[in-house]
Amino acid sequence: MDVKKAIEQRRSIRKYKQDDVSDDLVRKVIEAARLAPSGNNCQPWRFLIARDELKEKLKQDGIIMQSWVYDAPVLIVCCADPRVYQKKHVDGWDDANVLRSVRDLSIAAEHMVLRAEELGLGTCYIGWIKKDEIKNTLDFPDHYQVPYLITVGYADEKPKPRLRKTYDEIVLNPK
Question: 3-170 is classed in which CATH architecture?
Answer without folding.
Answer: 3-Layer(aba) Sandwich (3.40)
